[in-house]
Specification:
This protein is of the alpha+beta class. The protein is 20% helix and 27% strand. Strands 6-7-8-9-12-13-14-11-10 form a nine-stranded mixed sheet. A three-stranded antiparallel sheet has the order 3-4-5, with no helix packed on it. A two-stranded antiparallel sheet has the order 1-2. A hairpin with a 7-residue loop joins β4 and β5. This is Competence protein CoiA-like protein.
């Protein structure tokens, strides 16, 4: 963790200090080596939040865009379940910065725990396939009022991105400083992310139909201003909690009608088997 309580005050890890966990109140010790980010750790093998993951420079870079008092906020459910949100704004938005792989059931559990005002910001550079598939499937520019929005073919996206678009919350992919090449199908002005802003852009991914996903480019600075100052993002509705809806289900994408739902060729499932001897 980035913070612990030292004499009742939130403080970052410094050698020789002793702190108290913001979540469970247990003793914390500072880890201030040269290979990992300075952080606090529980004594022994105690872990009060099993959703927590080791932080990277990418995590810290995002968290540092928000006031310290909004970072690492404890949440306790009525049943006593405890988790620590990466960032929670005064308006109730919870921002989770996800670098490592996450199972669909854990993702759904977090969304149910924090509610519809949760936001995912996902590192899009962890897996090479995520970036390359995303770049290749920017097929058509469609405008959502003031924002450039592209329609993507779901089947051409990486398996990781396909899993994320099933989320019931807003999901932004951060591809860092990746450059999106121009060709005759793309609008040069809209795709020149580096030319528009030094701090780049992130991409809001939303599933709109069985086979398509929209990717809306949002400048990183505008997103941060939206959650810090409450300023509107042109073309996007304010992020207020919508009425709860049952999750939508879509058929699994398949390139061939001869493939069964488990990916094994249907022909071989139907083929009669004779005696081998």
């Amino acid at each position: 963790m980035k913070y612990a309580l030292v004499d009742g005050v939130r403080q970052e890890a410094v050698p020789q200090l002793r702190g108290i966990c913001l979540g469970c109140g247990s003793s914390m010790i500072p880890k201030c080596g040269t290979k990992k980010l300075h952080h606090w750790a529980h004594k022994g093998r105690l872990e009060c939040d099993h959703w927590w993951e080791p932080e990277t420079e990418w995590h810290r870079g995002w968290k540092n865009q928000f006031p310290p008092e909004w970072q690492e906020i404890r949440h306790i459910a009525q049943n006593g379940e405890l988790h620590i949100a990466d960032v929670r704004t005064p308006n109730g938005n919870v921002l989770e910065f996800q670098f490592s792989a996450i199972r669909p059931d854990e993702r759904a559990g977090r969304e149910a725990f924090y509610g519809p005002q949760m936001v995912w910001i996902v590192n899009g550079r962890r897996l090479k396939r995520d970036l390359t598939s995303f770049q290749k499937t920017l097929v058509e520019k469609r405008r959502n009022t003031d924002l450039p929005t592209w329609s993507l073919e779901l089947i051409d996206l990486s398996a990781n991105i396909q899993n994320w678009v099933e989320s019931g919350c807003r999901v932004y992919f951060d591809f860092g400083d990746a450059y999106f090449n121009h060709d005759k199908h793309y609008d040069e002005e809209a795709l020149s992310v580096k030319d528009q802003a030094d701090d780049g852009a992130i991409w809001l991914l939303q599933r709109t139909a069985t086979w398509t996903v929209t990717a809306t480019m949002v400048l990183r600075s505008k997103l941060i201003e939206h959650y810090v100052r409450g300023t509107a993002i042109p073309g996007l509705p304010a992020h207020s909690p919508p009425p709860l809806q049952p999750p939508q289900t879509y058929p699994a994408p398949s390139r061939s009608p001869y493939m069964s739902t488990n990916g094994f060729p249907a022909y071989w499932q139907r083929r009669p088997r004779g005696a081998r001897f």
